[in-house]
């Protein structure tokens, strides 16, 4: 793989198992270079299968997966896998190895000399916020669930891959730690500039981490879009069902003022309050409530949008939400 | 004759027969390890063949020891070490083979999956992950095989292979309980000692043991 993050393209991908089960049915979409894409679906939807096609843990029956236009099937499977970071639920750490030995796995497989490998391990553990000095010698059973996942992330990024595959990485963690890890993960991969494909069954996780969400149901692609598009303009009833249960919460917590400003009707009055476009809806509504502001304008990238009615935000939030 | 006088009179003989017994067991276990360990590793890649081979070994286990010894004596046309080691070897196969296959099958699926996904080859997964994690189970199989072999080897005296069974035979023929015990007690002590040795090394080889 090159030094830059690859674009990952799924072109007409189908997979039928020998027992006749159609795991994937003509799935086409692409993940732009350097972005975070969440594959979201229930169990058995095919999301993990889709992920495994990228590092050739599974093979397509029809169609192909390409990294920067090059089919993965044309690369050597082992070399390809060494160039791609991978984290699974429960970490999959080797229980008989110390944390640092686990993290050093891929550099060693790639034949790095001891010193290079050492530097990569220290750096990766630093970035995953599991400092080597304190945790390097511990075995996985001497770490908490959250610490184990940090080691697993450090192991995945140790050899500085340009593509990361994450299969329910935080599925086994309790909600408070999960939220913290999601935030850190997003910051980390943005800093590294990797392309990331994340499998999750938790729509809130998809909203918290991803630039782009791919909704999958029974092997078919239902909708692909940004969190805002998924939340506010579901393509059909199946897509709407993904967010239905938590619609209001998702919109409040994860949508930013700038995201929804385009969907709000402009008010005729004057905006007394000025709010930054980066603020979440929950945050903005809280701020307006404190100053009893009924109208506001949004400042986004040097532009002033609005003014808008506070009530219009509530109307938008409740649109389509239960 | 007091016990002390009895032991003093048979000391040289006891030492010699004990040596024979140990040699018989070591030869058997070495042969069984040499065959069963690699076979077990290989069979994990052929699950259907593994079932057949394990079934065959179980059948061997059901044949009474004395009958197997007699049968092999006739089959090889010899007495002494050859049919004895062969019979003990066949008995030792099952526990080693079964525990190797079972042990290698216990690698947690996420660990195995991560190993492959991060670019380990099948051989690297086997040597660096599956085998070390299987060690306690594999050693437990060796332990069972060793203890069985030491016990069963006493029967080999019937077909002229020597060992501690010689005293037992002699005791039975002369209706001398003391002579029987002269074979039984050292054999039992040897089995217990070897059992303890394997238990200790099993703990040492347990990757998750210790702290």
SSE topology sketch:
The complex is a heterodimer of chains A (322) and B (211).
Chain A: E1 8-16, E2 22-31, E3 36-40, H1 47-54, E4 62-67, E5 70-71, H2 77-82, E6 84-88, H3 99-103, H4 105-109, H5 114-127, H6 132-135, H7 145-157, E7 163-167, H8 175-192, E8 195-200, H9 203-209, E9 212-217, E10 220-225, H10 227-232, H11 237-244, H12 247-254, H13 257-261, E11 273-276, H14 281-290, E12 295-300, E13 303-309, H15 310-318
Chain B: H1 3-43, H2 47-62, H3 65-76, H4 81-104, H5 109-117, H6 122-152, H7 165-173, H8 177-205
Helix pairs in contact in B: 1-4, 1-6, 1-8, 2-4, 3-4, 4-6, 5-6, 6-8, 7-8
What does this structure look like?
The complex is a heterodimer of chains A (322) and B (211). Chain A is of the alpha/beta class. Chain A contains 15 helices and 13 strands. Helix content of chain A is 39%, strand content 24%. The longest helix of chain A has 18 residues, at 175-192. Chain A is globular, with a radius of gyration of 22 Å. With 211 residues, chain B is an all-alpha fold. Helix content of chain B is 81%, strand content 0%. Chain B contains 8 helices and no strands. In chain B, helix 1 packs antiparallel against helix 6, helix 4 (81-104) crosses helix 6 (122-152) and helix 6 (122-152) packs antiparallel against helix 8. The model of chain B has no long low-confidence stretch (mean pLDDT 90). Chain A binds chain B through residues 55, 57, 78-83, 86, 88-96, 105-106, 109, 139, 141-142, 152, 155-156, 165, and chain B through 108, 110-111, 113-121, 124, 128-129, 132-133, 207-208, 211.
Would you summarize the structure shown here?
Chain A has helices at residues 47-54, 77-82, 99-103, 105-109, 114-127, 132-135, 145-157, 175-192, 203-209, 227-232, 237-244, 247-254, 257-261, 281-290, 310-318, and strands at 8-16, 22-31, 36-40, 62-67, 70-71, 84-88, 163-167, 195-200, 212-217, 220-225, 273-276, 295-300, 303-309. Chain A is of the alpha/beta class and 322 residues long. In chain A, strands 6-7-8-3-9-10 form a six-stranded mixed beta sheet, sandwiched between helices.
């Amino acid at each position: 793989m090159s030094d830059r993050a690859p674009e990952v393209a799924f072109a007409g991908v189908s997979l039928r198992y020998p027992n006749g089960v159609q795991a994937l049915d003509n799935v086409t979409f692409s993940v732009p270079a350097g972005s975070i894409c969440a594959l979201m679906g229930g169990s058995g939807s095919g999301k993990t299968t889709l992920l495994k096609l990228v590092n050739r843990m599974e093979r397509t029956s029809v169609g192909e997966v390409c990294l920067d236009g090059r089919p993965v099937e044309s690369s050597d499977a082992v070399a390809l896998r060494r160039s791609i970071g991978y984290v699974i639920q429960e970490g999959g750490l080797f229980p008989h190895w110390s944390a640092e030995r686990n993290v050093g796995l891929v550099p060693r497989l790639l034949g790095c000399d001891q010193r290079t490998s050492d530097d990569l391990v220290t750096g990766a553990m630093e970035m995953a916020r599991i400092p080597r000095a304190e945790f390097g010698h511990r075995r996985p059973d001497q770490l908490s669930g959250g610490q184990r996942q940090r080691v697993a992330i450090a192991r995945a990024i140790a050899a500085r891959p340009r593509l990361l595959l994450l299969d329910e990485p935080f599925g086994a963690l309790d909600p408070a730690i999960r939220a913290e890890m999601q935030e850190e993960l997003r910051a980390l991969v943005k800093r590294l500039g990797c392309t990331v494909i994340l499998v999750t069954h938790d729509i809130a996780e998809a909203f918290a981490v991803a630039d782009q969400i791919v909704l999958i149901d029974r092997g078919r692609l239902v909708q692909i879009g940004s969190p805002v598009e998924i939340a506010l303009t579901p393509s059909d009833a199946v897509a709407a069902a993904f967010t239905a249960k938590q619609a209001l919460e998702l919109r409040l917590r994860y949508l930013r003022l700038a995201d929804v400003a385009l969907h709000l009707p402009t008010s005729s009055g004057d905006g007394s309050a000025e709010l930054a476009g980066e603020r979440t809806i929950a945050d903005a509504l809280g701020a307006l409530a404190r100053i009893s502001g009924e109208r506001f304008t949004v400042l986004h990238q040097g532009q002033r949008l609005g003014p808008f009615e506070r009530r219009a935000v509530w109307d938008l939030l409740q649109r389509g939400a239960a | 004759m007091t016990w002390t006088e009895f032991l003093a009179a048979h000391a040289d003989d006891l030492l010699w027969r004990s040596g024979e017994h140990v040699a018989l067991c070591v030869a058997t276990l070495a042969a069984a390890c040499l065959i069963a360990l690699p076979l077990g590793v290989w069979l994990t890649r052929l699950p259907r063949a593994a079932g057949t081979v394990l079934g065959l070994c179980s059948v061997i286990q059901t044949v009474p020891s004395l009958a197997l010894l007699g049968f092999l004596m006739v089959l090889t046309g010899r007495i002494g070490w050859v049919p004895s080691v062969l019979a003990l070897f066949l008995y030792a196969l099952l526990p080693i083979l079964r525990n190797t296959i079972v042990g290698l099958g216990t690698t947690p699926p996420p660990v195995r999956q991560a190993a492959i996904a991060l670019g380990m080859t099948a051989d690297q997964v086997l040597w660096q992950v599956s085998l070390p994690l299987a060690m306690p189970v594999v050693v437990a199989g060796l332990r069972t095989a060793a203890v069985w072999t030491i016990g069963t080897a006493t029967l080999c005296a019937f077909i002229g292979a020597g060992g501690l069974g010689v005293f037992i035979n002699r005791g039975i023929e002369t209706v001398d309980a003391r002579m029987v015990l002269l074979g039984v007690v050292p054999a039992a002590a040897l089995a217990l000692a070897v059992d303890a040795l394997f238990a200790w090394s099993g703990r040492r080889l347990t990757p998750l043991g210790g702290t």
